[in-house]
Amino acid sequence: MKKKSMSVQKFQEQFQGTVGAQAPQTVSILDCYYFPRLNNSLDCCQEDIPETVECPKQKQEENKMDAIARQEQNHRDYLERRLGDVREDKLTEAGKVFYIDGDDQPKTWPELLDRISKGQFIYNQVGAEKLGEDLMYYGAFGFIEWRDPNRPIDKAGHKAFVEKLRNAYKDARDQIRIMYPTDGLKVLEDFKAIVVQ
User: Fold this and answer.
1) What is the pLDDT, as a whole number, of residue 136?
2) Nearest-CA neighbor of 10 among 24, 20, 34?
3) With the C-alpha atoms ordered 165, 168, 174, 180, is the resulting torsion angle positive or negative?
4) C-alpha dihedral (42, 47, 49, 55), degrees to nearest 10
């Protein structure tokens, strides 16, 4: 630490009245601690006294811990995004399993003819008639729903599964947010294993 010195004569003048003490040849910051009267009178010493001392090793450890915490949070954020993606995939699959969404549109001309010949479509005649002349703006297949009329829609089953999936999603999300990422990955895998039925 930097020392500030002064002449012996000046120091002795400042130091007069201190019993049983001998003035040193130079004055440093340690003298301010050992001679309180001198500490009160020498501003040069007080300005050299540090208020806090920062330990470089401790600072490095703190930086390392912050980096680890940020990395773990990034992993949790990724797992939560993947959880949301899996949920959307499950809901899409449920729409097909419970026949809520019907079938995909025919993609080729032979497939279209086959669907029509087998009657695997539903025509909303009432909705089409309400439009009257405006029906032309909806195209030839605007009121056709591609689904098998003989296959019922399982609305009750779909509703029950969606509720089950919603609860499982909330539980999995809560666990991912507080667990270590390696444990959160296991939670995600368990959610992916839910069967749509």
Assistant:
1) 75
2) 24
3) negative
4) -170
- Look at residue 76 in the predicted model and tell me its pLDDT: 94
Q: Give the tens place of pLDDT for each residue, 66-83.
A: 888 888 999 999 999 999
Write the secondary structure of 13-34 as one string of H (helix), E (strand) and C (coil).
HHHCCCCCCCCCCCCCHHHHHH
Domain ranges of the chain: 8-46, 82-192
Distance (Å) of CA 158 to CA 86, 96, 110, 171, 197: 17, 10, 32, 20, 8
Q: Output Rg (C-alpha) for the chain, integer angstroms.
A: 41
Please indicate, yes or no, whether the overall pTM of this predicted structure exceeds 0.85. no
* Contacts of 66-74 spanning 24+ positions with Cβ under 8 A: 72/180, 72/181
Dihedral pair phi/psi, residue 149, rounded to 5°: -60, -25
Nearest to 146 by CA among 176, 120, 178, 116: 120
Q: 3-state SS string over 58-102?
A: HHHHHHHHHHHHHHHHHHHHHHHHHHHHHHHHHHHHHHHHCCCCC
**In whole angstroms, what is the distance from residue 132 CA to residue 126 CA?**
10
What tokens were used for 35?
Answer: 């001679």
Count of H-run helices and E-run strands, the chain: 9, 2
The stretches in the chain having pLDDT less than 70 are 1-57, 62
